[in-house]
Design brief:
The complex is a heterodimer of chains A (about 110) and B (about 110). Chain A contains no helices and eleven strands. Chain A is mainly β and about 110 residues long. In chain A, strand 7 (about 60-65) and strand 8 form a beta hairpin. Chain B has no helices and eleven strands. Chain B is globular and about 40 Å long. Classes of the chains: A mainly beta (about 110), B mainly beta (about 110). Chains A and B meet through strand 4, strand 5, strand 9 and strand 10 of A and strand 4, strand 5 and strand 10 of B.
Chain lengths: ~110, ~110
């Protein structure tokens, strides 16, 4: 079957760095995405990795290792507003479907 | 500014009713999606459409159908609503090429009594 595994919850302190891991097992792979969703809001796109390595966008970075079927989202200089759910998602080989993980709830404490 | 709109934020229906959820995007995107979101289960794909009049089943299509007569509009239909279809429904759109950037609508919270 197809599955994405990510931790259900992570807690960190304001100003710290946190890493949210995602391992995937899918029939095909086109790329790994990350989305952020605040309570009551819609998911918003954060980053996309099609190739191995690190992609940086401001305080957020995303990493992919296709040989390990693994990626992570790195959030630096955590702020209270980063408290949200974060979803990893894999776009399958055909390029149409995207499979989402169950999400990681990030709590940022003062 | 890109925009995906959904016809209702909250909807309450009775078991057995036919329910229509509408989604409109203004970005000229080829691909559109319907997901449902339940606590602890993430987003599960119900149906997607890669172009006008084209549709493909997602992972949980049972009890649902879709219609895409125009590029900007993708409708989700619950033929006979049941209580286990109580959920948050999210529509998204994406351009055909490039990254997997999906733009989501605000969601419709459907309650079936």
């Amino acid at each position: 079957g197809q599955s994405l595994e990510q931790p259900s919850e992570v807690t960190a302190v304001e100003g710290a760095i946190v890493q949210i891991n995602c391992t995937y097992q899918t029939s095909g792979f086109y790329g790994l995405s990350w989305y952020q969703q605040h309570d009551g809001g819609a998911p918003t796109f954060l980053s996309y990795n099609a190739l191995d390595g690190l992609e940086e966008t401001g305080r957020f970075s995303s990493f992919l290792s296709r040989s390990d079927s693994y990626g992570y989202l790195l959030l630096q200089e955590l702020q209270m507003k980063d408290s949200a759910s974060y979803f990893c998602a894999v776009r399958d080989t055909g390029g149409f479907k995207t499979i989402f993980g169950a999400g990681t709830r990030l709590f940022v404490k003062a | 500014d890109v925009k995906v709109t959904q016809s209702s934020r909250y909807l309450v229906k009775r078991t057995g009713e036919k329910v229509f959820l509408e989604c409109v995007q203004d970005m000229d995107h080829e691909n559109m999606f319907w997901y449902r979101q339940d606590p602890g289960l993430g987003l599960r794909l119900i149906y997607f459409s890669y172009d006008v009049k084209m549709k493909e089943k997602g992972d949980i299509p049972e009890g649902y159908s879709v219609s895409r007569e125009k590029k900007e509009r993708f409708s989700l239909i619950l033929e006979s609503a049941s209580t286990n279809q109580t959920s948050m429904y999210l529509c998204a759109s994406r351009t055909a090429g490039g990254t997997d950037t999906q733009y989501f609508g605000p969601g419709t919270r459907l309650t079936v009594l």
